[in-house]
Amino acid sequence: MFRSLFAFVFSIFISVSAASDAEPPITIGLIHFSPPLSTDMDFGPTLKHLQAFFAPRKVVAKVYQSPELEKAVEQGKIDFFFASSGFFYRMQPFGARDLATIVIAAKTKPNFGTAGVFFTRRDRKDINKFEDMKGKVLVANYETAFHGYRTGMAELENRGFNHEKFFKKVIFAGEKASAIINDIIAGSGDVGFVRACWLEEYELQNISVMDKLKVIGAKPGPIKCLHSTRAYPNNTFAATYKVDSELAREMTLALLSMKPEKDGQAWSIATDFKPVDDLYRSLKVGPYQYLREWSVKRVLTEFWPAFLIVILGIVGLVVHSWRAQKLVDRATTRLLAAEESRRRTLEKSRELAEKIEAQQKINLVGQLSSMFAHEMNQPLAACKYFVDGLKALRKQKRVPDEEMLDFSLGQMEHELKRASQIVNKVRDYSKKTVTREARVDLTSIVQEITQTLKVKFNNTVVVDVRCAPDVDVEGDPVETEILFWNLLKNAMEESQKVECPKVWVVLKTDEDSAILTVENSGRKLSAEDVAKLGTQTFKSEKSEGLGLGLVVVRSILEAMNGAIQYAPRDQGGLKVTVRLKRKI
Q1: Percent of the chain whose pLDDT exceeds 90
Q2: What structural domains and CATH numbers belong to the chain?
Q3: Predicted confidence band at 21 (pLDDT cuts at 50, 70, 90)?
Q4: Cα(88)–Cα(97) distance, rounded to whole angstroms?
Q5: Which end of the chain is more exposed for a tag (fewer CB within 10 A), N or C?
Q6: What's the CA gap between 280 and 274, in Å, rounded?
Q7: In the predicted model, what is the mean pLDDT of residues 502-515?
Q8: Closest Cα to residue 507, out of 534, 474, 472?
Q9: Which ranges constitute the DSSP H helices of 517-548?
Q10: Phi–psi pair at 579, nearest 5 degrees
Q11: What element of type H or E holds 62?
Q12: Which helix (H) or strand (E) holds 513?
């Protein structure tokens, strides 16, 4: 009896075992997630639950890289797969069907379980918002990474940027987030992009990164980690086309019946994959790759209104051309008559231009003559002063010592040289060959002319000179001498109209200009008097003057791109400020 019962039980066990061995194992493909892995990427607890649920039937899982998992789904080599919602969405054309979406304590809503985060070094003051990232170098996972690249590019498209032209360069550092973070900290890239929660995962592993990094464009939302993009459905468990409906039902029941782990890992159902669809559409990849490819049918379908407009335009152009030709034929006769009239008018205009040019030459000769007479008077008067001095010594029957004689001859030679330079300069004006690009030592010119005029005025005028050393300007040396000679000579002459005549000369510089100030004591001037200075309406009160000194000053400054200002002094007299471009 006992033997018979044992044999019966043993036969049932053998038959069940045989039946179990006869059923093929359930195969699950797991996409390779880049470390560090958060709890919503760890399939270990779920695998243990499924193995217990389907026992004694085996449940096996294998990790695939993204391209290999894609081939396995297309060819039906696996029953189920666990991957990002983006990967699942791309597999729908191959018959994939989502069964459940993972949730954890930090991501309790399956429709909003993943996102991406842009970050940069904390000391980068030039990168604080999305616009600041334009033209910078991005470091990300790899081109097809849903979490680690595409969610970020979709966010740029949503903000109105062209993601393909937004960054100066994109560096794909591979799967490890540590490589991306290290590149940003080391300065190999400007901006990094990783899956949301990666930065927090590093902190949980006691790897301090947040003190060196800052997040760009952080958003509020149902995800408790820092993120810069919109949220998408979390990692999804899906069935391939080879799975029968009964096994798919049992697998769904098994997933949804799994009790939450300590970290909150459980399964729910995502109902909104439209954000994923919008992502692929905006990036023109995955199921919308065809938007990057053109065919005759697509061109006609998308642009038929434009083709219709073009056809109508061609018809209209033909009609317009016929009508226009008729109008052209009519207008040609009128144009020929008008051309003849225009030719006669041009001939008269040419004759008038020749007359005007001749008159301009006459005016130019007059202007050059006036300038020559005004400027030549200065060196010739100085020479006459030294000659009169030597004559006076001769009348007194005194023999000048060698130092005085050398000084007088040297000054006469200098003034005669100035006279020769003025003659050459007037000749250049008449030929229009003047150049003003030489380096002119303004400090030396101010000091030399000041010393010469002090002697000319018999030291009757106190001249206080303060010059910054080595002040060079861009211009012509002779014009610069004429400019300062006129200003200082006028100042000294005006100062003699009051008691205790005095002149102040200050030469200083700022960043790109030389500033020359000439002040003199003298009679008080009204605003109307100051406004007339340097204009053609100003008339000189000096019997020997032509009234051209300040006009010449203004002309020289205009040619040198300089500026001049006149201001009356409260104590009487005038303050003149000249600004010239420095030659650095």
Answers
A1: 46
A2: 18-110+235-292 (3.40.190.10), 115-216 (3.40.190.10), 435-581 (3.30.565.10)
A3: low
A4: 8
A5: N
A6: 10
A7: 92
A8: 472
A9: 527-532
A10: -120, 125
A11: strand 59-64
A12: strand 513-520
